[in-house]
Amino acid sequence: MLYSLILLQAAAPSAPTSSLMTGILPIVLMIAIFYFLVFMPMRRQQRNQKEMVKSLQNGQTVLTTGGIIGTIVAVNDDTLILRIKPDNLKLQVSRNSVTSLVTAEDQVVKK
């Protein structure tokens, strides 16, 4: 019996290295999957948002973070001047407050 305990103790040091790899490998795989499913799409979306904000021009209809829909009248360095219907009210907003472009299909005319 003592002999079998000694043999088990002698064989034990090789086991922790393999269990260490089997313990770390799933964690590394989960981090990689999380990166590809969460961070890459988020980066792509931020890059597209930056490109859209840089390419804003007069006459485009935009939606702001506050929910205001307006047509761009003037483009400055950091700001835009929007014309808001129906009263043709003009607002100055930050470029970064624009969330998306509004197409003609998205606009709903209420009478």
Please outline the major beta sheet: 5 strands, antiparallel
Question: What percent of residues are in strands?
Answer: 15-25%
How many extended strands? 5
Low-confidence segments, given as residue ranges, are none
Number of helices: 2
Provide structural commentary.
By secondary structure, the protein is of the alpha+beta class. It has 2 domains: 2-53; 57-101, SH3 type barrels (Roll), CATH 2.30.30.140. Helices cover 46% and strands 24% of the residues. It has helices at 2-11, 14-54, and strands spanning 61-64, 69-75, 79-84, 89-94, 98-101. A hairpin with a 3-residue loop joins strand 2 and strand 3 (79-84).
Keywords, separated by commas or semicolons:
2 domains; five-stranded antiparallel beta sheet; elongated; 46% helix; alpha+beta; 111 residues; 5 strands; single chain; SH3 type barrels
